[in-house]
Amino acid sequence: MKQNVLITVTGLLYMGKGDREEDYVDIILPGKYYRRGERHFLLFEEQVEGSSLPVKTRMTLEPGRAEMKRSGFVNTDMVFLPKQGTQTWYMTPFGEIEMDIYTTQITITEKEDELRADIRYRLTLGGEEMDCFVKVLAQSRGTA
Question: What is the pLDDT of residue 115?
Fold first, then answer.
């Protein structure tokens, strides 16, 4: 895959029990792709509404592990390990919130000009439990 890519991040989370609320995110951004051995790196930057400070994201994908490190307007380092729990902090200008992540599934699929990751996890954020799904698609520019 080429270094210059288009990255699509789709996220869905379900909050609460019974009548569950949904929150959906879908962004498409230019980014960079690197590979070292079995590790894939995706780098991209997004602008947060209401802030002049962007959020820089580095995703690391490898067999049995994914990591999403975000810095800027918000800061966090989310680590996804199948059938395991991890803890981290979600830091915003308004304060810090503890996050517990329990990953149920990570699937990484690689093709010549495409990298796809599907991550399913349960998130507890400030005492609120959510079922989450994030799909990341990186495509070489010109093939997207």
Answer: 97
Task: Specify burial of residue 32 (Cβ count, 10 A radius: 0-12, 13-18, 19+).
Answer: middle
CATH class for the region spanning 4-140: mainly beta
What is the pTM assigned to this prediction? Answer: 0.88
**Tens-place pLDDT, residues 10-40:** 999 887 665 567 787 899 999 999 999 999 9
Using the 8-state DSSP alphabet, how is residue 48 labeled?
P
What tokens does 20 get?
Answer: 């569950």
Domain ranges of the chain: 4-140
CB 14 within 8 A of CB 20: yes
Which sign does the torsion angle of CA 81, 87, 89, 90 carry? positive
Residue 82 CA, distance from chain mean position:
15
The Cα-based distances of 47 to 24, 39, 66 in angstroms read: 17, 26, 23
Distance of CA 93 to the CA centre of its chain: 20
